[in-house]
Fold Fumarate reductase/succinate dehydrogenase.
Amino acid sequence: MSSSPIRPISADAVDTWDFEADVVIAGFGIAGVSAAIGAAESGADVLVLERTSGGGGAAALSGGIVYLGGGTRVQKACGFDDTPENMKTFLAEALGPGVDEDKLDVYCEGSVQHFEWLEACGVQYKESFWSQPGWECPVDDSLMYSGGENAAPFHTLVPPAPRGHLAQVPMPRNGEQGAGHVLMTTLLAKADDLGVRVESDIRVQRLVTDHTGRVVGVSATRFGKEITVRARGGVVLATGSFAYNDEMMQAYAPRLYKRPAATVEEHDGRAILMAQALGAGLAHMDACEVAFFCDPQLIARGILVNGRGQRYVPEDTYPGRIGHLTMYQNDNQAFLVLDEDAYEEGMAAPSSSPQLRRQPTWVCESVAELEAEMGLPEGSLTSTVELYNRHAADGADPVLGKKSEWVKPIGSPIAAIDLRGMTGGFTLGGLRTSVHSEVLHVDGDPIPGLYAAGRCTSGLSAGGYCSGISLGDGSFFGRRAGIRAAAG
Ligand SMILES: Cc1cc2nc3c(=O)[nH]c(=O)nc-3n(C[C@H](O)[C@H](O)[C@H](O)COP(=O)(O)OP(=O)(O)OC[C@H]3O[C@@H](n4cnc5c(N)ncnc54)[C@H](O)[C@@H]3O)c2cc1C
């Protein structure tokens, strides 16, 4: 499965160590920088090894949504009541079934404190709420819905609260300064202030263990030269997902094979393999974030039908949930059907993803004509639209529960946008870790000296996803990894 040797090296075989620190961290994205700050704040001497020429990882390119709640300052200022219990109830439904209850507990209980920690690191949040459907936020607001909390079926479970927190971005927005970029430059600067050392262009390849089996360092390559790095306290793995490892994708997440999105090529699964070679267990390897490549401002104003002409999701929900249901339950077949007025309105609405606005594939005068042109089974789309329109006349959607503000009868001319195969994403499964980010052996015990966080681990998701969970659990459990590793 691996092109270069992956099994651990014995420390006895190491003649000289090229570098040494209390805590050695592989990867300088969101999990790595949070681990570095956590360890340095605990008084450790910290060294980060980063494969590229600088820190940031996928996180610096990201939308920067961090999933936090339970009553943060920004939630309160924007008028939303939230509690750790409500947050937990929602996430257990949205990310499950099979979520790690212990992790979910500490995450929800510690969420307000984690928000305050990010603020103490220098991340600035504005007390303003972005209310529009979207993948991200196109202005400088710091709070948005990012998981379908305010849509069916979740909005009746607990009172909806937005939990997507975004670092305030400079206005007017420029392409390079999204909330992910702002979040990461702030955290990287904080690590630098704390004296964290960084060695770039180093690709961590294998773990080094002592005669007791404890992890005491790593072996890596730098421009083809092998180097060894000693960790007096512990090693933290934070190198990202396996979205770009073809063999692992075929084995664990075949539906997303060759469909990576919202990730970077450095996510090659190496840390997972390195730890597996030492006996580490895995969890939820099939869990994925699934992006759906269409502007949510258009989706909410139409109806989404599958290859049988039937609706399958309330169109005003989180677009990642739409992607998930499309890919996993509807053979990746989706068509957005809407009339001219709805299309024009959606195209004119403020959008965080104008590149995902799409031209209609078919435009017709009647539903029957459209159905025929799309090649759908005769009567399928006609009966779907007839049923939708019957209730839409009263502003209701009893079939799937789309909120009345988005429900209007579909008139003529009527169009459909072909969205078949318009999905992609990244993996959420990985190393099984404890709530303290210790990597767990297949026997359930922590592997001494080895910690991990971010997308090389199984974090909060057991299958479902909400935007902000990856930066959320990456930073939360990354920080914990650093603190624990610093304690030796
Ligand atoms: C366009 C886009 C939008 C996104 N939006 C969001 C969002 O709004 N909210 C959200 O929660 N998530 C979002 N994500 C996903 C999120 O950014 C990632 O899932 C998250 O950054 C993963 O954290 P990580 O620390 O595991 O990996 P990263 O942040 O990618 O960091 C991993 C680091 O490890 C380095 N590395 C890899 N291999 C090695 C090695 N062998 N040795 C040393 N270093 C190595 C990499 O170069 C990288 O710097 C988005 C991603 C993209 C690309």
Observations:
- The mean pLDDT is 97.
- The first strand starts at residue 9 and ends at 10.
- Residues 1-291+424-488 form a domain with the FAD/NAD(P)-binding domain fold (CATH 3.50.50.60).
